[in-house]
Backbone:
């Protein structure tokens, strides 16, 4: 069986090797029934879902006349799709949408020869292919859209409401930044800042984050007047600047009470310091390809210019930090808050630690320069995101990284000789194959598995519900695409036998013809021979006449079935003769008789019944319908038949005892008339 390993213990029949010590997984089951529970039934539902039926013991009716439920039917989903953040319908859209980019990338990869693969993987064109693949997959994972903007923007709204992104999209974009996008290597810090701005909210469910703190603080802004008097205000500004959210930091600064018209005269120095810090933040140098119109900072596209601007900017911060104007600021909260902000902008480690909440925010710079090991990334993806991510993310992890590609494609003895890359695709293909709506895209992934893919594909096709015409036709088309002629023939044979046994005789013969199964077609021919009528009045031949007509011109591939087709034409001609039609019809019937008797596929047991049914042709009143040569052919057949009657296995036809003599006499009479005619 495909996938069987040489040393797999009790799991030797598994297509994909299973760990001998699997970790148990607990799924909650809330049925709401009162004990005692009498019976528990578990069966498979659609996809990776179990149907659990919980039944109680019969109980007498309650005093109030209300009867309690006798049972519940529940469904337990076994797959882990990001804690339910993506529903089944969306998962099917992602599954179908990812087929085309995956197949196209595999085709481009396979078109590269082995000798030139290393140089090809380093080429600019290949990197473009990788990014095209990544963007198409990324687009399937959703695009968060902001809520409709208000006509008048609330000055105290610092965070816009957007659709919550998915963990899958966050993980995919993070791998794209580190492994696939060559153009972002020079400005990875900025890419990470943008990434954290989009996905920091995902961490808020399990621990505090800058995003969650801002959400909470934004609620307090509505009721607070002098925000600068509250420590959370300054903490929020420091946190946003620590992770590069400059726009939010400046907006919060300009909510400072010194900007009020009634405060400008008495708090001029204080306002000047706040504005100076806001301007410095707005002028922060940023090393990136471009900067959106709504983004603050000054964009630099090359590192030398950026370094010069960075040193100049830091010098301005240091100069402001040493300014004498701080002594003139009488508002202690403002002075201390702005001083801490300057230390954050200068990169003070203590300030950065106090301004962030979890490791991704604090150590984001560390992750920019140390690329995590590929194996670690794979393990995290497998644990958190399941088989889809594992099957598709490998292309990003190995882009331009020969060592990572060797790791994924190295044959593993403990996996039955397959590599990690093939294992991931096999697992994902099995998930697709388990659902009636996605099984037909599994071959795309199985065909890319060199070791066990085609064997598993044959297993998948053989287990489909072939009694449904659309499933059968799709399976045959898949066999044609992947040159699985034997599998296609077997599917047709299985369908033919099923249809024949369930009374669909015509469909059964059709699929046997498509499969070119001569053995079974000959068995059907023998079966039909037992029912073909011995005379024109027998209704059994009419019963099978439609099936014989279905055999058509292709019946020659089945040997004996060719006789039934020719016999049908002969019976039709003979019927016209008995209906009293003209001599031309009798002549055509005589020619059909000779053709039938000369054909080697005509069974010997039918010679005498055919000749006996043709007595009217031999005794035709007008003129002999058969010439001397044709009559000799029939006499020779009678001689062979007389010799065959001496064999012990000869079976006599169901005819009158004098049938042979009557036929012999009629043919001899026709011979004499033919001689005189000639």
Residues:
């Amino acid at each position: 069986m495909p996938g069987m390993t040489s040393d797999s213990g009790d799991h030797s029949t598994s297509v994909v090797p299973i760990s001998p010590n699997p970790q148990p997984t607990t799924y909650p089951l809330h049925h709401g029934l009162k004990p005692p529970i009498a019976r528990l039934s578990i069966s498979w539902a659609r996809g990776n879902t179990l149907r659990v039926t919980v039944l109680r013991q019969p109980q007498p009716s309650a005093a109030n006349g209300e009867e309690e439920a006798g049972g519940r039917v529940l469904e337990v989903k076994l797959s882990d799709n990001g804690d339910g953040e993506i529903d089944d319908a969306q998962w099917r859209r992602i599954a179908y949408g990812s087929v085309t980019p995956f197949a196209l990338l595999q085709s481009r990869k396979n078109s590269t020869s082995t000798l030139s693969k290393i140089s090809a993987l380093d080429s600019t064109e290949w990197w473009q292919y990788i990014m095209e693949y990544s963007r198409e997959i990324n687009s399937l994972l959703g695009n968060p859209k902001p809520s409709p903007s208000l006509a008048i923007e609330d000055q105290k709204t610092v965070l816009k409401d957007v659709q919550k992104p998915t963990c899958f999209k966050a993980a995919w974009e993070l791998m794209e930044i580190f492994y696939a996008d060559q153009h972002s290597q020079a400005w990875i810090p900025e890419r990470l800042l943008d990434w954290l701005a989009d996905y920091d909210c995902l961490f808020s469910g399990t621990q505090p984050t800058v995003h969650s703190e801002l959400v909470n603080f934004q609620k307090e802004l509505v009721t607070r007047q002098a925000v600068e008097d509250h420590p959370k205000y300054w903490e929020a500004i420091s946190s946003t600047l620590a992770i590069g959210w400059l726009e939010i930091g400046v907006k919060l600064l300009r909510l400072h009470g010194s900007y009020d018209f009634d405060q400008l005269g008495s708090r001029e120095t204080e306002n000047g310091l706040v504005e100076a810090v806001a301007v410095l933040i707005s002028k922060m140098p940023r090393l990136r390809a471009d900067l959106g119109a709504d983004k603050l900072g000054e964009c630099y596209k090359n590192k030398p210019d950026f370094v010069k601007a960075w040193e100049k900017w830091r010098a301005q911060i240091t100069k402001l930090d040493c300014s004498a104007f701080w002594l003139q600021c009488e508002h202690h909260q403002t002075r201390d808050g702005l001083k801490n902000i300057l230390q954050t902008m200068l990169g003070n480690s203590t300030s950065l630690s106090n301004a962030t909440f979890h490791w991704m925010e604090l150590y984001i710079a560390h992750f920019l320069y140390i690329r995590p090991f590929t194996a670690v990334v794979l393990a995290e993806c497998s644990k958190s995101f399941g088989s889809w991510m594992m099957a598709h993310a490998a292309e990003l992890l190995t882009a331009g990284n020969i060592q990572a590609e060797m790791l994924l494609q190295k044959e593993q003895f403990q996996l039955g000789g397959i590599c990690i890359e093939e294992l991931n695709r096999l697992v994902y293909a099995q998930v697709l194959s388990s659902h009636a709506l996605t099984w037909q895209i599994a071959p795309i992934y199985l065909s890319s598995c060199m070791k066990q893919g085609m064997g598993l594909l044959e297993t998948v096709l053989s287990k489909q519900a072939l009694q449904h015409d659309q499933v059968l036709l799709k399976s045959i088309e898949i066999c044609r695409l992947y040159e699985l002629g034997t599998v296609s023939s077997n599917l047709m044979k299985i369908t033919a036998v099923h249809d024949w046994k369930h009374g669909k005789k015509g469909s059964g013969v059709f699929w046997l013809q498509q499969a070119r199964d001569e053995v079974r077609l000959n068995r059907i021919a023998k079966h039909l021979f037992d029912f073909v009528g011995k005379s024109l009045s027998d209704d059994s031949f009419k019963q099978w006449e439609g099936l014989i007509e279905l055999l058509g011109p292709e019946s020659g591939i089945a040997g004996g079935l060719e006789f039934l087709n020719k016999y049908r034409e002969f019976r039709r001609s003979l019927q016209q003769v008995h209906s009293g039609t003209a001599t031309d019809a009798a002549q055509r019937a005589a020619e059909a008789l000779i053709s039938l008797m000369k054909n080697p596929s005509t069974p010997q047991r039918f010679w005498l019944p055919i000749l006996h049914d043709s007595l009217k042709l031999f005794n035709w009143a007008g003129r002999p319908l058969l010439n001397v040569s044709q009559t000799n052919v029939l006499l020779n057949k009678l001689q062979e038949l007389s010799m065959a009657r001496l064999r012990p296995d000869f079976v006599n036809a169901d005819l009158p005892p004098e049938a042979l003599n009557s036929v012999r006499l009629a043919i001899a009479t026709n011979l004499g008339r033919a001689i005189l005619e000639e």
Residues 122 and 515 are 47 Å apart (CA to CA). The first helix runs from residue 88 to 97. The longest strand covers residues 37-44.
